[in-house]
Amino acid sequence: MANEDLSGLDMGETIDWYESSGIEFRQAKEGLIFPYTIEQKEYIELTEDDLSLLIQLFPLTARKRSILKKVVGKPTTWFRRDSTAEKPQETQEVKQALSPTALVPSYIDYQTWRNTGIPSADIWLYRLPKNISTMTRRIILAQGFVHEYGHSIIAPALYIPNYKLVLPSGKEVEGLEYILEFAKLAEAHAPISHYAATYRGESNCFDNTDPQKAKIAIGEEMTETIAAHLLGLAFCEEQARRTNPLSDRSDIESHIKEFLAAEHNQKI
Hints:
Low-confidence stretches: none
Oligomer: single chain
Order of helices and strands: HEHHEEEEHEHEEHHHE
Number of helices: 8
Strand content: 5-15%
Strand order of the largest sheet: 1-2-6-5
């Protein structure tokens, strides 16, 4: 994939919009309980109260399905020039980066799941450069955390065979089939965000020639949609949609709400 197809990995325009939009993420009140371990806190600008507030945006049913184990702080990191959409490469040397604003704000790590076979995930939050304003850094990290926490809820349905969900209506569905229904709805619209556009193929479709690549792409679209729904913002090409990102896709919003409200039926 040519580098020009990786524009979604460059946060330059996103940062400019956050800086000029007037959007804020104010520090959360003290006393909230964060139910996960945090490691290398010195790299994380968001407080435990901030992270707790963001988790509480998710319905309790969704939180119960999360496989998150811990949050880990990481130093400033960029996407490297040899990245692809399927395999982004990282560097802590800006000279090797796609651009000075091709920053990695967050990441979800499944290595323990791969090693043990037990579903689990860690969220990594990266320190952002100080030449970005404090409020913009907070917004970027908040969006990144909500995005990755969404992954920790989606991943079991996406990758565990016969993972059953019980919708609020009482209907039981196969998790993967429900996510693929979301993908069909999403293909009828432009990508939810500038970042999500990186994972669309020809004719605005997800690549169906490689099931693994398709799952990665659909997962990114879905987590970006969850973050857009819960936070009420998404940097995208259509300016009118940036602070009302689901205004043109009520079908998708209903699907996301239903997915987050679903319970896991562990009887397989």
